[in-house]
Amino acid sequence: MKAFEEYVELAHQAHGHICAGQILGLRLALHGLELLGIEDPTGRDRKRLVTYVEIDRCATDAVAVVTGCRLGKRALKFRDFGKVAATFVDLASGRAVRVAARDSSKDLARRLYPEIANKNQQQMKAYREMADEDLFSHQWVQVRVLPEDLPGWKGEKAVCAQCGETINFRREVVRDGRTLCRACAGESYYAPAEKESSQ
Predict the structure, then answer these.
(1) What angle do CA 168, 98, 126 make, to 5 degrees?
(2) Could you say which of 37, 97, 126, 156 has the lowest number of CB atoms within 10 Å?
(3) Structural domains of the chain, ranges and CATH numbers in brackets
(4) HEC string of the chain?
(5) Distance (Å, rounded) from C-alpha 9 to C-alpha 185?
(6) pLDDT tens across 2-46, in order?
(7) pLDDT (tens digit per residue) in 101-110
(8) Which segments of the chain have a pLDDT < 70?
(9) Contact at 8 Å (CB) between 55 and 84?
(10) Residue 2 C-alpha from the chain's centroid
(11) Considering the entire predicted model, what is its pTM?
(12) How far apart are CA 158 and CA 180, in angstroms?
């Protein structure tokens, strides 16, 4: 593991600024890896780890910096639960731990540094110093990582019978005997525009 300030600098580069959420995310990931006994997540242990994050905010970028897990490597998984939490899965041992930020840490930060008026600055300072048990709760969990969700998995592809686009990683849906992508099956997050967008 690197020194904490090295992670802060890497998080700054990756995220564009440092904030309380970044400090919290760094600490959260370091705590999770420590609980699992993973010491070199971006080196010799890099293929052992899959991480599930539960929020798309600052802390997630920091978790990615510490763990080396990335969406494009299929080692970082996003589940939109709206919580500052992450589950770290050791693929080698099958062990998994979920670490969640305690909301009470904000109150503790206020009590520790009442002289700092800026809430972000106050939390950044406190989150660097607070004990793990004051910042986080953790729970040992079981996570079933399907073969098609593993980093590096390659499998057959399907083609949507409606739009003709290729579907990877067994994400197709079969309806009335037709193979469809999730969008054509009614799970789309987008809708066709009425007219072409222009500048």
Answers:
(1) 120
(2) 156
(3) 4-145 (3.30.1330.130), 155-199 (no CATH)
(4) CCCHHHHHHHHHHHHCCCCHHHHHHHHHHHHHHHHHCCCCCCCCCCCCEEEEECCCCHHHHHHHHHHCCCHHHCCEEECCCCCCEEEEEECCCCCEEEEEECCHHHHHHHHHCCCCCCHHHHHHHHHHHCCHHHHEEEEEECCCCCHHHCCCCCCCCEECCCCCCEECCCCCEEECCEEECCHHHHHCCCCCCCCCCCC
(5) 44
(6) 899 999 999 999 988 999 999 999 999 999 999 999 999 999 998
(7) 999 999 999 9
(8) 197-199
(9) yes
(10) 20
(11) 0.88
(12) 9
Q: Cβ neighbours of residue 18 under 8 Å, at least 6 residues apart?
A: 8, 11, 12, 124
Task: Give the pLDDT confidence of 15-25 residue by residue, as tens digits.
Answer: 889 999 999 99
Closest to 90 in 3D by CA, of 45, 134, 56, 135 = 45
Q: Is 16 left (phi over 0), alpha (psi -120 to 50) or beta?
A: left
